[in-house]
Design a protein that fits this description.
Length: 301
């Protein structure tokens, strides 16, 4: 005859074994197989090879561009190509790098500040017309950028900003996507009790944003800042339309290296190499914020 204690002990033991087996099955489900590692290696090689080949061509002469198979080892002409790049009278490449750095930095800082401030207001403050304003901001995301180029260009001409760097900066100081993203993150990351406690302590609304909300939004702000910097740095159509050839951004400078009769691919690839380097540096610095923001969002989900 089985005693109650033995029965309960057996149930506890069986339950523990079941939990252990279930945990083992869960781990086995997510363990990486050799095929997974192979697929990741192939994807990594396919992603990195175009950048690597760009650097290889930037260190060689034009006669290797059409070689089959393509060269896979760097040459020794990179500094010569870089010198010809910065001395090119049609590209204004140094000015393009400076303009892109100024525009991307200003737009990034402004977008993160205003988007986080507006996101805090839409998520945690109560005011009349909040939902209507939020719907209006979301509606701006549905309009293609190309549809606004002509009206925006006419405005720049009317106020005399055509050809100036402010025409690339001011229209993009805040984006609807940034406001919506920061609003969604604020709702999840900042509890209402924390804001009420700050109000009880006598903190103003802007003080709550600066001392309480903004530190909590650091992961999302890092993601938004990196995405904004990359988008502004890689922007081509609007700077080409509104800036003068003597005052370009880096993408317009690279485009000016090619003409109708001959394309110097070594110069173009050397210019692209210099244009990619700031993006890599920014990604290395803020990449941890992107991973942290994605993982935090996944955990909360």
């Amino acid at each position: 005859m089985t005693t109650p204690s033995a029965t309960s002990s057996g149930r506890r033991g069986g339950g523990g074994a079941h939990r252990r087996n279930g945990h083992g099955r869960f781990r086995a489900m997510w363990d990486a197989t050799p095929l997974t590692y192979l697929a990741l290696i192939v994807a990594l090689v396919l992603s990195i090879f175009p950048i690597y080949w760009m650097i290889v061509v930037a260190t060689r002469s034009n006669d290797v561009v059409s070689d089959v198979p393509p060269p896979v080892l760097p040459g020794g002409r990179f500094f010569d190509n870089a010198g010809r790049l910065f001395d090119n009278p049609d590209a204004y490449f140094a000015q393009g790098l400076l303009n892109s750095a100024i525009a991307s930095g200003a737009v990034t800082i402004s977008t993160v500040f205003f988007a986080s401030l507006a996101g805090f207001a839409f998520a945690k403050l109560r005011f009349r017309g909040k939902n209507a304003l939020l719907l209006t901001i979301i509606a701006t995301m549905m309009i293609p950028v190309q549809m606004g180029i002509i009206p925006l260009y006419m405005i720049m001409v009317r106020i005399g900003w055509q050809g100036g760097l402010q025409a690339v900066i001011v229209p993009f100081l805040v984006t609807g996507f940034g406001v919506f993203m920061m609003r969604q993150y604020t709702q999840q990351a900042v509890p209402d009790e924390l804001i009420e406690a700050a109000r009880v302590d006598g903190c103003t609304t802007f003080g709550i944003y600066w001392r309480v909300v903004l530190p909590a939004l650091r992961p999302a702000a890092g993601v938004l800042g990196l995405l904004t910097f990359m988008q502004t740095w890689n922007e081509f159509m609007w700077p080409l339309a509104v800036l003068s050839p003597e005052n370009p951004t880096v993408q317009v400078s690279i485009n000016n290296l090619s003409n109708a009769y001959f394309s110097d691919y070594t110069l173009m690839f050397a210019g692209t190499t210099f244009a990619v380097l700031p993006l890599l540096v920014v990604f290395i610095i803020f990449g941890r914020q992107i991973i942290g923001g994605i993982m935090e969002g996944a955990i909360k989900a």
